[in-house]
Amino acid sequence: MLSRPGAGVFEFAPALIAAYVVLAVLAPALCKRWGRPALMACGLLPLATTVWAGAQLSAVLDGGERLVHVDWIPTLSIGIDLRLDALSLVMTLVVAGVGTLVFLYSGRYFPADDDGLGKYTGSLLAFAGSMLGLVLADNLLLLVIFWELTGVLSYLLIAHRSGKRSSRVAATQAFIVTTAGGLVMLVGAVMLGENAGTYTLSSILAAPPSGPLITTSVVLMIVGGITKSAIVPFSFWLPGAMAAPTPASAFLHAATMVKAGIYLFARLAPAFAALSLWQPVLMVLGGITLLYGGVVALRQRDLKLLLAYGTVSQLGLMTLLIGTGNPDALLGGLAMLIAHATFKAALFFVVGVIDTSAGTRDLTKLSGLRRSMPVMFWVSVLAAVSMAGVPPMIGFAAKEAGYAGILDGGAWGAGGAVVMTLGSALTVTYSIRFLWGAFSDKPGQADTEVSPSSPWMTGPAVGLAALGLVLGLVPQLLEPLVQSYAGTAGETHEDAMALWHGFNLPLALSATGWLLGTVIFFGQRRREHAGEIARPAAAEPGRSYRATTAGVDAVAVAVTNATQRGSLPVSLGAILIVLIAFPGTMLIKAGVGPKSVETFGDPAEVLLSAVILALAVVLLRVKRGMVAIILVGGVGYAVAVLFILRGAPDLALTQLLVETVTLVAGLLVLTRMPDRALFASRKGNGFRAVVAVFAGALMTALALIIPGTRTVAPISDALPDPSVSYGGGYNIVNVILVDVRGWDTFGEISVLIAAATGVASLVFLSQRTGSVPRRPTALPKAAKPRRPSPWLATDWTPRRSLLLEVVTRLIFHIIVVFSLYVLFVGHDQPGGGFAAGLIVGLALTLRYLAGGAFELGEAAPVDAGIVMGIGLLIAAVMAVVGLVGGGSALQSTIFQGEVLGLELKFVTSTIFDIGVYLVVIGLVLDVLRSLGAELDRQAVVDRLDDDAPRSRRGRRTADTGRGTRR
Questions:
Q1: What is the DSSP string of 473-534?
Q2: CA–CA gap between residue 964 and residue 648 (Å, rounded)
Q3: Per residue in 127-177, pLDDT tens?
Q4: In this model, does residue 294 exceed pLDDT 90?
Q5: CA dihedral 939, 940, 941, 947 (to 10 degrees)
Q6: Is the pLDDT of residue 357 over 60?
Q7: Residue 94: left (phi > 0), alpha (psi -120 to 50), or beta?
Q8: Which residues are 894's β-sheet partners?
Q9: Quick one: which H or E segment has residue 394?
Q10: Is the dihedral of CA 857, 860, 861, 863 positive or negative?
Q11: Exposed e or buried b for every residue in 928-938, given b needs 16+ CB within 10 A?
């Protein structure tokens, strides 16, 4: 870890972010053990973060900053670069401070029997950690990573009530919109970093590059910001996200996630506000959003939706101020961000209290709460007054600073001030509307009955309202912090944050907004009858989004129907035709040919080639699937022998083993298919033959021509020496797989596990456990073996050989021991984890073929998924060990010495190979149990159903245990 002198406790920032990840993983277990108190206990981490951030206050004043760097992926210019300055400190205090209150509030908001409490707590902690990483990131790519993490985690929080379709739809909508914007932002970040010559954000902002590409990259990043902060035309996702639990809404949609875009604008503004497109884009979109959100908020009956559209409007105001670009406007925008966090989170808390106490958020059904909930009433008054920009709350001081800044905004300033005044008037209107709708007496309605609310829920709302009052009375407390940020853009006016600046134009504009907003409210009330308060919007927002997604779905279905006919031959033929048409045409136009062709050097190769051709020709004439699979296997075996003759024993061994496993899998599949299903029709065989001949000719030509185009010496010439000195082994192939290309191998075994899980899930109908009973107790009596033996677990099918079963039992352990030999000598001789795992897989296959499902259960009484998981875990641990030891991931160490007079050598990459070994064993076991044992069991059930009386079939099916559809 590297840090600048004086970094102080900021050096612990990476560990602090990691603590959120660790606690998020532990949260489900804590909630299961402690219940709701676990939420309050988890709130200690954001509380500690708040204290930690407060301790950094003096370090960031007057433009100060703290930097820390941890190497991560140097080749991609990605490091864990964190930076703390005034702007990131403000966001950290907002994230951690409001987060602490959200955890306390959530501890009583959810019922004690909520089964999703653990998932909610873990997601909330992970989100808070990601948001903290986002505001502290000093690397553009790291910023994008945290940016996308917040989107994924917000999806989980919005879709907390996953049983409701509306929650899932809202979460998907928010995720798609913000993720699409994040991808656009990634393009802009890469363009900016490449043109600046560095991805370090502080370096770019200190010496901002210029030019058309820079303007384009900044605009692309702005697109990411406006999607995240719900700026028009992407405002529609935020109201839908109100499907989230109310405390999550207070955190995501009042204090943190929606502020990410505002933070991005504020971060870029000091360096790029002078760009020609900055003011037009941000001020125009911000102004439209300010007015749009305010107008639509007046038409809402749901208090939470009213606050949601109010949030949209306030985000537009912040964008308008930051888009102005001058230092005073930036100061006002940051002050507004702080004020918004205090009053809007408090109002969301109030709505949650009302909802849980009264059972509704519909303002047409609420009456008399001013008397029954006096504490919440006065909290709402203070928060609404702050939201309306009325003294003596922080909202007033922040808005005054914003007016002063926007009036200095040059040619765009006057228009911006007018829009801000109109938007402020609408804010006053919906602030009054909130108070009236939630707490007033409605004519003709009895007082709404409410149940007592917990102090853990009222307390956070009271705390935020009180904070807004204190900061409003003494706004000078914020002056040094907001001035420190605004000073990075230029000189600012002193005493910008004050409760009283005298009679001036900003005060006149504020008063105009108060008066106009009050008039609008009473004018609206006069036009409405008591029973018809608030007409809902004529149409839900997001119609263009839904139309777009519906259009994409329709196009996808049409393309899929046109190109994917559900036929493997058709799909393969399309691929081959494209291959012939494009690379083949280019090869012909190039007019190149092979430089030299080596003829057969061994008569055995001629014989093997003739065998392969003969098998291929015969294969075209067979009509039975089993014969066809055997012939295909014969071709593979012959090719393996060619590998041996060409001096590739490792490749030959792998080919033989894979061919055998594939052959067995194909035969198992055919047990549930008609034998002639593969050759139902011969129509189109002529066309297939033409495509096959041309594809074969093209591949032959490429194989002959491409080697002759090499202009430098092949890298294989330099591999023998490094294989020994670097990898510690003489088997170059194995060294490449577990040392040089270890990451590729790790990815490949991960794909193998995913594929095995997918295949098995398609076979097991009701649940996929991968387990097989070791004794035939789970089957009907008619399916059990008549003479069970303690030594031979004979299957129920009649096609088994007792001799084969006895011989298999005798040689099974010998094969397993041989596989261990192949595993451990693989670094120096043909073999390795993959080949050794396949050898064990063949031994298990023999046990299955000899005795069926129960014999396989006796041979391997373990869950295949657990075996694969342990193998992947071993491989992953080996990747981490290298990093812990100060090296690179998957870096191996060679231990060599004399033990008991014997010269012994051990390379740690062998442990990684053991992981591969277990993954392959688990994969084969999974295939045998899904394509073999489970299919056998289903066949028995089908046979029993066919033999049983019609009235008893349902009961027989229900009694057969797992794997059946109930």
A1: H-GGGTHHHHHHHHTTTS---TT-S-S---S-HHHHHHHHHHHHHHHHHHHHHHTS-GGG-S
A2: 46
A3: 999 999 999 999 999 999 999 999 999 999 998 887 788 888 889 999 999
A4: yes
A5: 110
A6: yes
A7: alpha
A8: 907
A9: helix 394-407
A10: negative
A11: bbbbbbbbbbb
Rounded CA separation 740/729 (Å): 12
Quickly tell me which residue has 């907001």 as its tokens. 482
Q: What is the pLDDT of residue 307?
A: 94
Distance separating alpha carbons of residues 334 and 164, to the nearest angstrom: 37
CB atoms closer than 10 angstroms to residue 710 = 9
Residue type, 748: E
DSSP 796-819: SSS---HHHHHHHHHHHHHHHHHH
Give the integer Cα–Cα distance in Å for 700 and 682: 27
- Going from the C-alpha of 492 to that of each of 319, 363, 464, 523, the distances in angstroms are 19, 44, 29, 40
Q: Chain-wide mean pLDDT for the chain?
A: 84
User: What is the Cα–Cα distance from 152 to 135, expressed in whole angstroms?
Assistant: 17
> At CA 906, angle to CA 902 and CA 910, rounded to 5?
145
The CA-atom distances, in angstroms, between 18 and each of 85, 128, 161, 424, 465 are: 21, 11, 28, 41, 32
pLDDT at 96: 95
Q: Which of 710, 741, 743 is nearest to 727 (CA)?
A: 741
How open is the CA angle 33-35-40, to the nearest 5 degrees?
115
AA letter at 206: A
- pLDDT of 134: 95
- Token look-up 């990898």 returns 727
User: What is the enclosing helix (H) or strand (E) of 894?
Assistant: strand 894-899
What distance in Å separates the CA atoms of residue 903 and residue 901, rounded to the nearest whole number? 7
Please say whether the beta carbons of 347 and 465 come within 8 A.
no
Residues 6+ away with beta carbon under 8 Å from 276 = 215
719 and 732 Cβ atoms separated by less than 8 Å? yes
Residue that the structure tokens 């603590």 belong to: 19
Please report which confidence band the pLDDT of residue 828 belongs to, taking 50, 70 and 90 as the band edges.
confident
Cα-Cα-Cα-Cα dihedral of 416, 417, 418, 419, to 10°? 50
Which pLDDT score is estimated for 540?
55
Residue written as tokens 């899980």?
757
Per-residue pLDDT reduced to its tens digit, 752-793 = 888 877 776 666 544 444 444 444 444 444 444 444 444 444
DSSP 964: S
Question: Tokens 């033929």, residue?
Answer: 573
Instruction: Answer yes or no: are the C-beta atoms of 652 and 644 closer than 8 Å.
Output: yes
Q: How many CB atoms lie within 10 A of CB 534?
A: 18
Cα–Cα distance measured from residue 121 to residue 107, given in angstroms and rounded to the nearest whole number: 10
Residue 952: CB atoms within 10 Å? 11
Give residue for tokens 């958020």.
361
Paired residues of 78 in beta bridges: 73
Q: How far is CA 708 from CA 106, 585, 597, 598, 717, in A?
A: 69, 19, 9, 12, 16
Q: At 440, give phi and psi (nearest 5°).
A: -80, 165
- Reading the block at residue 63, the tokens are 């433009």
The type of residue at 98 is V
Residue type, 402: G
Rounded to a whole number of angstroms, the distance between the first and last alpha carbons of the chain is 57
The pTM assigned to this predicted structure is: 0.73
Q: Are 444 and 529 in contact, with CB atoms under 8 Å apart?
A: no
Do 665 and 927 contact (CB within 8 A), yes or no?
Answer: yes
Question: Is the CB of residue 225 less than 8 Å from the CB of residue 289?
Answer: no
The closest alpha carbon to 506, from 392, 427, 405, 430, belongs to 405
Query: Is-contact 401 463, C-beta < 8 A?
Result: no
Cα–Cα distance for residue pair 688/672, rounded to 1 Å: 27
pLDDT tens by residue, 86-116 = 999 999 999 999 999 999 999 999 888 888 8
CA-nearest of 296, 324, 318, 326 to 308 is 296
